[in-house]
Write a structure and sequence with these properties.
This protein is mainly alpha-helical. It is built from 8 helices and no strands. The chain is globular and about 55 Å long.
Length: 187
């Protein structure tokens, strides 16, 4: 990862994505709703960092901008990694196959990094960490709602539960019940 250009969005993403349950939840939304994990992370980062909210038009413009990279590079790298993982390569030493899979996974991560830099380039100024925490939480959840609109999805209870680990990891000082309330989760 030392070849990657440092960026606050990338650092945020690495930290949040590594939190318990976040990867599984984001990948579930990717599979179930065709959500782009980088865009999910962007939505939350913008709110958490005090950079504000997205509009449907602005997010649609961003999605169109990254689509050639997403479809022509990121998805292809992901598909190649998955093919190596799922394939029957019994005629090749397992260590060799695993080494190839690791290299493809590294290429996929590098492609994700490029996509994040493409997205983050639209917010070159520092965020406003002085904005009240609950306002930043509302902005993050609002951004996720804007993304749902762009995906043509009406979030259901399962989607809200999938978003809980992501939003909770982005706002670690809040109690889970506050994050649940912001997401509209009732227990």
């Amino acid at each position: 990862m030392s070849d990657f250009l440092p960026h606050p969005f990338w650092n945020f993403s690495l930290e949040v994505y590594a939190a318990e349950g976040v990867a599984v939840s984001c990948l579930a939304l990717q599979e179930r709703r065709q959500a782009n994990v980088n865009v999910l992370l962007l939505c939350v980062w913008l709110g958490a960092s005090g950079r504000g909210t997205l509009t449907v038009d602005r997010l649609k413009t961003l999605l169109a901008e990254i689509e050639p990279w997403q479809s022509g590079v990121v998805r292809l790298a992901r598909a190649m990694r998955q093919r190596i993982k799922d394939g029957d390569w019994s005629t090749v030493p397992a260590e060799t196959v695993q080494a190839a899979r690791r290299r493809v996974a590294d290429a996929e991560l590098a492609a994700e990094h490029v996509e994040q830099l493409m997205l983050a380039a639209h917010w070159p100024l520092p965020g406003d960490r002085d904005r009240p925490l609950h306002q930043r939480l509302r902005a993050a959840v609002g951004n996720l709602g804007v993304y749902a609109v762009c995906l043509g999805v009406t979030p259901d209870a399962r989607d809200r539960e999938s978003l809980l680990p992501l939003v909770a990891a982005a706002f670690p000082t809040l109690h889970e019940i506050e994050v649940e309330g912001a997401l509209g989760i009732t227990r």
